[in-house]
C-alpha cells in the first residue's frame, strides 16, 4: 500500500529561461533530485528540464534582493528549488511582516499574497499567478460579513485566514489552522461567529461544547471536503487486514467524521512535524488526509523510511503556479502580479491580523 501522488509538472513553455551550459544544468539537476528526494517522480531527466528555471530564478532573487516565500502546497521544485522559506499561512504571514527585503514574492494563492501586503504595506508584494484563487476565500464576501454582524449585533467575528482582504477588514480577529482553537476560546462572551469554513466551525463548536456557541458559515475547502469518514475507515480497515499499524493525520478543514477517525489533527506544519516524530518513534505507516504538498514535504524532510499510505487530493489553485510564472514575475511583473489594496482596507484588515498575533501569543 502506498500513496498515489500526481506527476511532476512540466513547464508550459511560455517563458523561456536563460541558456546554461550542460555542466551547470546537470549540477543543478543533481541538487534538485537530492533536495526533493523523490527520484521516481522527479527524475534526473525531469530536473534537467526545470534546472534552467531554478537557476535563473535564484540569480534574479539575489540581484533584486527578493524574499521568496512558498506555501507548503506548492510543488517541490518551488519549495526546495527556489523558496527561501516554506511553511503554513501563520508562519508565512509573520515572515512576510518581518523580512528585511523590500520585495516579497509569495508563491501561493491570492489571499496569502494579500495577507503579506496587509502586513507589509510599504513593500512590493508579487503574486506570480493572479488567477490562483481558493474555494474558501471565494465562498464569502465583505457584505456577507456585514449581514451577519447586523443579524447578531455585538457578537465577535473570527475569520479563517483563507479570506480576501475585504473580508478580513470586516472581522474582529483572523485565525489560522494552527491557532483557531486557542484564539476562539479566548474571545470575549459566550458566542462567536466563525467564517467561512463550516468544517472548521463544526470542529470548533465540538471543542467549545458547554463553553461557547459558535455561529457557523457555509464555506468549504473543495480539496479537504472530498475526504469522507467512510473512505478513511475503509483505508484503515485495509491497513489493519494487511497487519499495518496505521497513524491517521488530518487537517482541520476536513469534515467531522474524518477528524473522528484521525489520531492527530493539525495545520500543515503540525502534520509534517508529527509525521517526522512518528517515524522516529517507529510508527512508519502514515496516512495524511490533506493536500498532496504535505506528503511531498514529509518525504523531503524525513530521514526515516516512512510508508505514506492512502491518497491525497491536489489543490488546482495551489498548483496553478509553475516555475516559469515565478521567473516571469521576477523579470518584469505585470500589473496583475503586483498586489495593490485599498489603504482603508489594509488598515482595517491589519487590525484583525494584529489581533490574531496578540491572541496567539497570550
Ligand atoms: S487547499 Fe483548499 S483552502 Fe487551500 S487554497 Fe486550495 S481550495 Fe483553498
Protein model, in words:
It contains 15 helices and 12 strands. Helix 11 links the parallel strand 9 (247-250) and strand 10 (264-265). With 362 residues, it is of the alpha/beta class. The strands form 3 sheets. The protein has a 4-stranded parallel sheet with strand order 2-1-3-4, with helices on both faces. The protein has a 4-stranded parallel sheet with strand order 6-5-7-8, sandwiched between helices. The protein has a 4-stranded parallel sheet with strand order 10-9-11-12. It has helices at residues 22-36, 44-64, 76-81, 89-98, 110-119, 142-151, 165-168, 180-186, 198-207, 229-241, 256-260, 268-280, 292-301, 323-331, 343-360, and strands spanning 66-71, 85-87, 103-107, 124-126, 157-160, 173-175, 191-195, 213-216, 247-250, 264-265, 285-289, 307-308. 44% of the residues lie in helices and 13% in strands. The termini are far apart. Helix 2 runs parallel beside helix 14 (323-331) and helix 4 packs parallel to helix 5 (110-119). The protein folds into 3 domains: 22-131 and 318-337, Rossmann fold (3-Layer(aba) Sandwich); 137-221, Rossmann fold (3-Layer(aba) Sandwich), CATH 3.40.50.10800; 224-308, NadA-like (Rossmann fold). It binds iron/sulfur cluster.
Amino acid at each position: 500500500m502506498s500513496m498515489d501522488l500526481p506527476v511532476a509538472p512540466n513547464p508550459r513553455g511560455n517563458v523561456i529561461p536563460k541558456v546554461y551550459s550542460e555542466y551547470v544544468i546537470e549540477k543543478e539537476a543533481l541538487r534538485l533530485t537530492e533536495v526533493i528526494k523523490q527520484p521516481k517522480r522527479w527524475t534526473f531527466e525531469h530536473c534537467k528540464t526545470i534546472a534552467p528555471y531554478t537557476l535563473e530564478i535564484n540569480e534574479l532573487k539575489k540581484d533584486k534582493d527578493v524574499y521568496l516565500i512558498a506555501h507548503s502546497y506548492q510543488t517541490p521544485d518551488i519549495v526546495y528549488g527556489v523558496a527561501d522559506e516554506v511553511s503554513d499561512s501563520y508562519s508565512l504571514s509573520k515572515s512576510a511582516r518581518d523580512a528585511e527585503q523590500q520585495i516579497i514574492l509569495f508563491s501561493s494563492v491570492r489571499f496569502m499574497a494579500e495577507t503579506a501586503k496587509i502586513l507589509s504595506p510599504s513593500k512590493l508584494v508579487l503574486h506570480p499567478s493572479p488567477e490562483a484563487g481558493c474555494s474558501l476565500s471565494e465562498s464569502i464576501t465583505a457584505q456577507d460579513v456585514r449581514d451577519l454582524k447586523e443579524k447578531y449585533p455585538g457578537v465577535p467575528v473570527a475569520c479563517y485566514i483563507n479570506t480576501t482582504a475585504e473580508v478580513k477588514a470586516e472581522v474582529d480577529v483572523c485565525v489560522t489552522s494552527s491557532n483557531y482553537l486557542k484564539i476562539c476560546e479566548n474571545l470575549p462572551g459566550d458566542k462567536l461567529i466563525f467564517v467561512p469554513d463550516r468544517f472548521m466551525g463544526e470542529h470548533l463548536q465540538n471543542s467549545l461544547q458547554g463553553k461557547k456557541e459558535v455561529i457557523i458559515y457555509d464555506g468549504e475547502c473543495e480539496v479537504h471536503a472530498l475526504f469522507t469518514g467512510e473512505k478513511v475507515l475503509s483505508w484503515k480497515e485495509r491497513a489493519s487486514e494487511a497487519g499495518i499499524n496505521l497513524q491517521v493525520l488530518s487537517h482541520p478543514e476536513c469534515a467531522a467524521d474524518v477528524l473522528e477517525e484521525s489520531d492527530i489533527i493539525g495545520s500543515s506544519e503540525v502534520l509534517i512535524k508529527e509525521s517526522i516524530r512518528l517515524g522516529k518513534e517507529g510508527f512508519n505507516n502514515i496516512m495524511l488526509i490533506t493536500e498532496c504538498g504535505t506528503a511531498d514535504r514529509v518525504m523531503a524532510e524525513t530521514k526515516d523510511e516512512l510508508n505514506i499510505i492512502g491518497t491525497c487530493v491536489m489543490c488546482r489553485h495551489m498548483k496553478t503556479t509553475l516555475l516559469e510564472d515565478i521567473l516571469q514575475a521576477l523579470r518584469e511583473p505585470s500589473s496583475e502580479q503586483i498586489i495593490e489594496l485599498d489603504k482603508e482596507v489594509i488598515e482595517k484588515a491589519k487590525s484583525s491580523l494584529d489581533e490574531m498575533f496578540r491572541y496567539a501569543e497570550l
